[in-house]
Amino acid sequence: MKPVIILNFKAYREGILRMEEIVESAREINESGIAEVYLAPPLLYALKISENGIPVLAQHTDAISYGSHTGRIPPEMIGSAGLKGSLINHSERRLTLADIEFIISRFRELELISVVCTNNISTSRSASALRPDFVAIEPPELIGSGIPVSKAEPEIVEGSVRAVKDVNPSVRVLCGAGISRYEDLTSALELGAEGVLLASGVIRAKNPGEKLKELAGIEP
Ligand code: G3P
Fold this sequence. Notes:
Layout: E1 4-8, H1 13-17, H2 19-32, E2 36-40, H3 46-50, E3 57-58, H4 75-80, E4 85-88, H5 97-110, E5 113-118, H6 121-128, E6 134-137, H7 149-152, H8 154-167, E7 172-176, H9 182-190, E8 195-198, H10 200-203, H11 208-216
Parallel strand pairs: 1-2, 1-8, 3-4, 4-5, 5-6, 6-7, 7-8
Helix pairs in contact: 2-11, 6-8
């Protein structure tokens, strides 16, 4: 299977300023077939990107249904707007267990992709019991650090892969935090992960489009 690369723009200004080149690189990588890239831009920009044929994930979805809610986004809107799915329970947007379960099961009914973020082996194990498509293990202390989790804490990645597959072999595991280079991606794959979730290493790079291609293994 192709490695999965999910690029979270967070709310970095650079991601907005350099959006076009990032989108172009994502397109190039996906067309080359070398990896499967999903972009997770701020929601205000999601439609613009997905209309360009790039698979887009929301950075967050709320555990609600259609109705009287202000400033919130139910799973149904993610689907009807043409997004492919969402990050759920990101370290910077934690949810309750009940909310995580609600969103994953609605996503399953709506055929949307659920990517649940976790912070250690036990939460990865618990998250996998809820049957998401992906569990993305991200030790919070390494987020934004530039120190790749696949190097600094390989045992958390391996342990999470083992724990998740024990509970539910069909759940795919990603790892994130400090990922920026092709070798971070390949070490993640060697540890049993099926891809990476990252942000600053590409979004804040001098040439984010080039950096994304390099990460996927396309020579400059
Ligand atoms: O969602 C990705 C993330 O939290 C990792 O951030 O900047 O360490 O790649 P970063």
